[in-house]
Structure formats: C-alpha cells, structure tokens
C-alpha cells in the first residue's frame, strides 16, 4: 500500500524529472537554432563551435558555484526556492530574447553574445540546486530511486532530440524559444512549493547533518566522472553515427541514435536498487567496465542488429553511471555539502563536453594519426575509471568492516 510519504517522495522525483526534461529540451532547441542566430547577426559559422565551448566553460565554473550557493542558502526553507526562481526568470528572459535580438541584424552581435552569457550563467541554477533537496530532506534509502527519476528527464530529452531537430529544422526560431522558456520558467517557479512541502515532511535528523570535512573520495569521484563523461561524449557524439552508417543510411539515424537513450532510461531503475544496498561507487565502477565491453562490441559489430544491442548496453551503462554519480555525490556530501559535490558532478559533465567540442573543432577525428585514438579512447576512459572506482569502493568497504 502506497503511503503519503511514498507519494511525496515520488512527487519530488517526478518534478525533478520534468525540470531536467524541459531544461534539456531547451538546450537542444538552442543547439538547433544557434547557427542561424549567429548568421543573422553576422557571426561566422566557424565561430559557433567556439560559442558552444564558451557555454561549457561557463557551466564548468557556475555549476559548482551554484551548488555551493545552494548549500549556503538552503538552511532557511523557502530561500532556495526564491534563489532558483529569480535566476530561472533571468535565464528564461535571456533565452526567449535570443531570436528577437538576432532578428535585428548585424548590429546586435555583441548583444547576442551578452544574452548567451547571461543565459549560460543563470541556467546553472536549474541543475545542481534542485537536486540538493534529495540529499538534504529525503531519507538516504530513497535517494537512488529519486536520482533515477530525475535523470529520466535527461534521458527522455536525449531520446527525442533527433526528432526535435527534424521537426524544428525549418521553423521560425521565435515560437520554440518562447514555448521552451515559458514552460521552463513555470516549472522552475513550482520549485519553491515543492521545497516547502518536502521540508515539512522531512525527517528532523536530515535537516541538521553532522559537520565533518570532505575527504579525498569526492575528488576521486569527480575525477572519475570527468573520465566517464569524456568516454560518453566521444562514444555517443562522435563515434556512434559512423558506427551506424556502416549498416544504415543517414536518414535512418534519427531512429537509431535513440537506442542508446532507451537503454539509459530502462537500466537506471533496477540499478538504483543496487545503489541503495551497495552504494553508488560500486555501481559506477561496474557500469564503467560493462560499458567499456559494450563499446568494444559496437566497434567490432558485424551487423546492424548486433550494433543495436551493443548501443543499448552502452546507453544502459551510461545511465547507471550518471544515476549512481548523483546518488554518490548526495551521499558523500551529506555534511551540508550536497550542492557542492553535486555541482562538481555537473561541472565534470560540462568539462568533458568542452573537451569533446575542442576535439571536433580541431578536426581530431578526421586526422589519420588520431582517428584510432578517438575510436578507442571511450573504452580506455570507461575501463580505467570503472576499475579505479571499484578499487576505492572495495577499500572503503574494508575500512568499514575493520571499524
């Protein structure tokens, strides 16, 4: 029988999933239209990748900064919701203004860049800060399931992004930007009510976490997350399409690329049960090794069906890694530093994205001497990080048994 507490827990996860879904779809809309917006103001096509790299560089800094800010201001219920709401309003206003400013012509070049910077800085308030609610107010056993629900929004957005690109390709930018910005703002403004509700239902012991310093484990977690994220970026965004084009036509990619995200979405929930009992580091490590085998299988696949299975498994592994990373960050940060550690996880994702974009901008994947490196780097990233995480997890377990 479902209790009131269970319903409240599920509501929190569903809300976070919707927030991640709407935010990620807004980012996808931005990616689709950015080349046209830049062309409207006279920015050269070659500069678009540099603007995207600038965005990721900003995210790398501000995701952690926003998480730290969330830790500082969340001691008073309602203040975090106000903080997120104000920054969301600024972010959505800047986002909606982008196509209108670009439409005024070359004289708006500087203003377009300024709006992009404002949007990038403020949008970080919609990533780590909302997730800190899970660590601060929810009982620890429920956190992995809630993290899986939250990341489900991210996975669904990844699955529908190819279709969104096809639908919006020839549409005027203004309506999609207005709709995306308005829906995201409404979703973000609901955060304050969600915060107050779960704070009222929280276990008292969760509101005043024990004060203790973070050790070396968080930094190892973040370093591993950089490697795992880089492996994902290189595999999915650079290598996956060429893998499929060995057996399929370019027009089929919109149907084949989402296979990765289907695996991502399905695997997180059973994996959250393992995280609940064994911890996030163990699942991250095991998923890293299994994902590395899946990438090897994709590399050597001899048929489309074999490749589809391998891509499904690689996506499942990445889903387990990301869900476990959020769960581990919230558990490790259970000292009043939930926002900081979770922000570092998102900064690691942004840093890996920046590195992938830099590789693409430099044409690394097209250079004969470096093409094998790009193909096999994801295997190295996932296997090295996975093995390291399992060693650290085993070491922590041994210390617990000896204590």
What topology does this entry show?
Elements: H1 4-40, H2 48-73, H3 79-102, H4 109-123, H5 128-137, H6 143-168, H7 174-189, H8 191-201, H9 204-207, H10 217-245, H11 253-256, H12 258-278, H13 280-300, H14 304-332, H15 338-361, H16 371-402
Low-pLDDT segments, ≥5 res: 204-208
E-strand count: 0
Oligomeric state of the chains in view: single chain
Spatial extent as radius of gyration: 21 Å
Which range best describes the helical content: under 10%, 10-25%, 25-40%, 40-55%, 55-70% or over 70%? over 70%
Order of helices and strands: HHHHHHHHHHHHHHHH
| CA(first)-CA(last) distance | 38 Å
Query: How many distinct helices?
Result: 16
Tell me what portion of residues adopts beta-strand conformation.
Answer: under 5%
Commentary on this structure:
This protein is mainly alpha-helical and 403 residues long. Helix content is 82%, strand content 0%. The longest helix has 37 residues, at 4-40. The radius of gyration is 21 Å and the shape is globular.
In short:
This protein has helices spanning 4-40, 48-73, 79-102, 109-123, 128-137, 143-168, 174-189, 191-201, 204-207, 217-245, 253-256, 258-278, 280-300, 304-332, 338-361, 371-402. With 403 residues, it is an all-alpha fold.
